[in-house]
Amino acid sequence: MLPCHGRRSFRLAGRRCDDVDVMKMPSSNSKLISGAAIMLALWAIFLLSALVISWALDIDSRLSLSGEGTRMLKAEAVACSGAEVALHPAVTPGSPNLSRQLDNGASYEARLSGEGGRLNLNWLVAGEDPERLEILRRFLEIKEIDLHERDTMVDSLLDWVEPNTGLHHLNAPSESDDYHPPHTLLTRIEELKKIAGWSEFTSTPGWEDEFTLNSGGPVDLAWASRDVLLALPGLTPEIVDRFLQARRGPDGIDGTEDDTQIRGIDDARMLLGLNEEQFKHLNGLISFKDPVLRVVSVGTAGKAKRTVQMVFRRVGAVPQLITWKEF
User: Fold this and answer.
1) Could you tell me what percent of the chain has a pLDDT over 90?
2) Which domains does the chain have, with CATH numbers?
């Protein structure tokens, strides 16, 4: 018998069975294939959803970063604006122009102060002048540095800046493979962190606020802080507190409109309450109205803040920029 198309002859349940149409037989394989296809489709949809969510989150993150970046740039721009305002020769420390709220919601707050009110370290150690070095030692004592540590700090600083002669100061460590003083004047205040004995002092917040390398040298009585004034010879806490109260005016803040107008060094002497003989002990150690100034301008845009700090010399109509720092 000739076989028909779509038919087969085979044994089923132990006997021969002919002429069974296999096309009409139910198949479990087709059901399995359909279920697998559905699972694959669902899996594909899940993956696609995950990719879409991830993409959306990435876009949101980028937009957030972009917005924050824009605010930071705006804050930096207004901080620069405040600093540039302070550079103008007609602007004084108490000027209302040093603070402004802009139409775009940003603002700046700039503070102008005299650089000479800080201790110029290169000036203090130059030539190992005993009177100047004593100012530094007394200042460190006021900061509660003990005697042994003060000696190490001062001698190590002297070794650091003085020409290499093969000798070193008594309380300074010898040079080694790990410690090499450059034997030149300081170029940055941060160098103090590298000098033996100074690590603990320079780890405290604000340690650098009363130091400089950019003033004319002598301490400017118009801007010196209480601790700097107390480091000067012959100035007791009573004298210094009386002087600061008079200099700062009723609000007790330097650089505001109610400050006492001190016209010169003689006015400063009278405010200190010193006679001419007492004042002679300060000759060569003090100045008044050093032309080097510092401006710290803080710009704000939303929650973003940026600070610009400039040190400049105000001589004539064009200021001479000395240092610029942003943070």
Assistant:
1) 48
2) 71-117+290-327 (3.30.1300), 119-209 (1.10.40), 218-289 (no CATH)
